[in-house]
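Appendix B, Record 12. Input sequence as logged:
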Amino acid sequence: MQPHPNVQAVQRALDEAGARDGSGEASLVRLLPDAVHTAAAAAEALGVAVGAIANSLIFDADGAPLLVLTSGAHRVDTAGLAATLGMTRLRRATPEFVKQHTGQVIGGVAPVGHPTPLRTVVDTALTGYDEVWAAGGVPRAVFPTTYAELLRITAGAPAEVA
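Logged structural output:
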């Protein structure tokens, strides 16, 4: 059975970037038996700490998409992050906005594999983990990587987001 086109796009982006997991091997998208729509569910399915889950959250930043890769252990402080980034308004995006800018649905948004690159911020709390897990384009797909790799493959900026 052929993987979902979003999973293929994410794997292609990982391959093109030469993305690596925590052991230095190539990052490979894995399909879990069931969809994992929350960081807690993903952590349980993978047997890792919830903080090692890199949630991909899309925000509407003054009308433009902003991807925030945050540790599953906490919530984004939108007012604080908006101030840090010099934005007037930062709010959770609608499902339609997310789909428009990523081609993916909430619960499966990956850090890569979008139609065009997104401005990205990567939570510094993820530095506490040798390996982190991110969504792979659909709610049951994930891939292992590292904080440094997330910064590199997304051209993201490090930030405290909580």
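The radius of gyration is 14 Å.
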